[in-house]
Amino acid sequence: MAGPQRVLIVDDDQYFRDTIRDALVAEGFACEVAATVSEAEKALEDSSVACAVLDVRLGEGDVAGLLGQLRRQRPALRVIALATPADQERVLEALRGGACDYLAKPIHDEELCLAVGRALAVQEIQVQAEATRQRLARIAAIAAEVERAAREDGDGGDLARRIPEALEGEDPVLVSLLVAAVEGRPAPTAPTPSTDADAVSDEAELLREVIEGMTREVDPARLLAASLRPVARATGARVVSLYLIDNIRGCLVREAQWEGEDGDRPELPRDAGLTGGSLQSGAIIATDHPERDPRFAPDFDTPESGAPGPLLVIPLRVRDRILGVARIFPAPDRPAAPRLGELLAAPLSAATRNVLLYRSLLESVEDVARARREAESGTRSR
Predict the structure, then answer these.
(1) The pairing of beta strand 267-269 with beta strand 251-259
(2) Which residues on adjacent β-strands are paired with residue 315?
C-alpha cells in the first residue's frame, strides 16, 4: 500500500497515536501524527495526506469545525472517525459532517487497515476521475480552438489533419472521435477486447459510484439503495438485492433491493439452493443458466416472478464472518460475470458493515437516553 498517499492520525492520546501508526506502518501505509486540531490543520496542508483517522473527542480544538473546513477545502480527503463506545452522539455528528467511516476504540488492527485501505482506494479513484475530467476539458478546448482557426482560414475540411497534429500523443481512438464530432459525421467504432466483466463498461467508475453511495449516506435504507443503484444500472439487472442473516428467525431477510423489471423474495432459507450454497461456503456463485446446476432451487434461486435467468450471488463478509449475500439477476442478454462479483464483494460488505455500525450506534444512543430518563425519573420521585 506504500505510495504517495499518506494517512494522518489525529489523537491527543499518545498511546493510541503510536498504536494506530505502528499498525498502519506495518501494512505499508505512510503515516503522520497530530495531537491537536491546530497540528492537524498544519499537517493537512500537505496534499499527499489522503486520509485522516480523527478522534472525535480531542482535548484541544473544534473537531466539528475541522470537519466542516475539510469538507469545503479538501472534499476528496477521506476522514475516519475514531471514538470510544461512550461517544456515539459525537460519532453520528461526525458522520453527518462528512466522515466516511467509524472505528471504535480499542482498535482492531485488521479492521483499521481495511478501513484505511478502502478510504485511500476511494480517494485515488476521485483524484483520477478529476484528472480525467480536466484532461478531457483540455482536449476539447484544443479541438475547439483548432476547429475555429481552420474555419477562419477557410480550411475547415482539413480538420482530420489539424486536430491529430494538435493532440499528438493523445489516445488515437479519442482523437478520431473528436475529429468525427467536429466534422459532423458518425463516430468510428473501435473494437473492444472481450473481458470477463462485459456486463460492466467501466469497472473503476462502477466501484467509485458504489463506494461514494456507501459513504455519502448514513441512513441504512438510503445507504444500501445508493450502493445497489449503480450495480443495477451497470448490469441492466431485473433486480439487485441484499440479504442479511436473521438469527432469531433462522433465515435470510431482504434488507434492500433495487427493482428493475422484477422484485426479489422477502425471505430465503440459509441452506437451500445456490444462494444458500454461497452463504455456507463463502464462494461467489456466477452462472448464466442456474437451472442446469443440480443445486438449483427454483423457489429460492429466482426472483419473485419465478423466472430463471443469469444469477450472481456474492457473500458479504465482515471481520471474516459471512453475514449475508447480495443477489444480482442480470438482464438475460448479460452474463453473470465472476469478475463482477469479485469487484463488488468488498464495497458491498463495507456497506453492510456501515449499516450494522449505524444501527449499533443508534441502539447505544437510545440506551443512554433511556438510562438518563430513568435516572431523572428516580431523582424526581425521591
Answers:
(1) antiparallel
(2) 325
Tens-digit pLDDT profile for residues 146-180: 777 777 776 655 666 676 777 776 666 566 656 66
- Output the CA torsion sign for 192, 198, 201, 204: negative
49/6 Cα distance (integer angstroms)? 4
Cell numbers at 187, concatenated:
463516430
Residue indicated by cell numbers 459532423? 184
Whichever domain contains 25, its CATH number is: 3.40.50.2300
Give CA–CA dist 230/207, Å, rounded. 9
Residue 244 structural domain: 203-365
Contacts of 222 (CB under 8 A, 6+ apart): none
Which is nearest to 196 in space by CA: 288, 328, 279? 288
Q: How many domains does the chain have?
A: 2
pTM over 0.85: no
Q: What is the pLDDT of residues 219-264, one digit of tens each?
A: 677 778 888 888 888 888 999 999 999 888 889 999 989 888 899 9
Does the residue 34 lie in any domain? yes
The values of phi and psi at residue 331, to 5°, are -55, 150
The phi, psi pair for 23, rounded to 5°, reads -65, -40
Q: How far apart are alpha carbons 79 and 95 in whole angstroms?
A: 9
